[in-house]
Amino acid sequence: QVQLVESGGGLVQPGGSLRLSCAASGSIFSIYDMSWYRQAPGKQRELVARITRGGSTNYADSVKGRFTISRDNAKNTVYLQMNSLKPEDTAVYYCNADALSSLTFSRRDYWGQGTQVTVSS
To answer: What confidence score (pLDDT) does residue 60 get?
Structure first.
């Protein structure tokens, strides 16, 4: 199977920055889109940013101009650079990968375990 492991979350003051990383490993034949989602307490999980294998990106309106998604295909890793953080960015951030397994040759979404980001003074 495919495993996703996130890192880089933590506590930061408003206006600060954090960089999240998500590394995919396991039985990977190919990874297509990679995305970051977030879920705040009492709210639904929402898409933050997505990047295609070719590097095309799209962002939620709430993070445009502040967050940047990137990926290293050779390392099967996706990053989320978060600048000018606001208290409303507080959430658990989840990595998502649309991947083809080299074991089953089936394509499906895979999820990481999540990493907490807290923006507070």
So the answer is: 98
